[in-house]
Amino acid sequence: MNDVSTSLAPAAPISHGWSIALSVFMILAGLVAIAVPPIAGLAITVIVGWLLLISGFFHIVYAWHTRSRGALVWEIFVGLVYIAAGIFILVHPVAGLASLTLALAAYLLAEGILELILAFRIRHHRGWGWLLFDGIITLVLSLMIWRTWPHSSPWIIGTLLGISMLFSGTSRLMMTLFARKPVTP
Questions:
Q1: Angle CA(10)–CA(174)–CA(18) in degrees, nearest 5?
Q2: In a designed cystine with 23, which of 2, 72, 145, 172 is the match (CB 3.0 to 4.6 A)?
């Protein structure tokens, strides 16, 4: 028996049920997000809005408690920017969703370019082609979002979130089911 299966053995019977339940929930939530991506996208936008709002308040509280002369003004300013962005997103969730979609496209563009650069820098190593492939796919996804933005905004975030949740739930379920089987030497 290997070290991992030995260390997980006592907790396994308790956690299998919870892990399976979480996996099924993630799979179902992923399917719902794929089925109704605009609702999933708006839900994510509202969550981001609340996170920005809460973060802004914490910046201001932190600034007030530290009260260092130079940092006080800047921390309060940063907090107010966070609060303003959070309020804007909560009041205008469709515009917030469009902004998040544009930010996602910019992120994917930067990631794709950096992966291509890295792939060519390590081209003498085995497996560098996978990084090249990943960079190309990431660039294509970015360009697809850019070309269809803002029309893609209602569905892109929800669809990608749904796909991620579906695959995460499926991989967790498979790992849990595999872990339930006894290890044979």
A1: 50
A2: 172
Terminal-to-terminal C-alpha distance of the chain: 6
DSSP-derived 3-state class of residue 168: helix
What is d(CA 110, CA 176) in angstroms, rounded to the nearest whole number?
35
Region 122-142 average pLDDT: 86
Q: Say what the alpha-carbon torsion angle 88, 91, 93, 95 is, to the nearest 10 degrees.
A: -50
Domain parsing of the chain, residue ranges: 11-180
Give the whole-angstrom CA distance, residue 144 versus residue 97: 17
Q: Which amino acid is at 57?
A: F
Flag whether pLDDT at 11 surpasses 60.
no
Tokens of 135: 């960079």
pTM of the full structure: 0.70
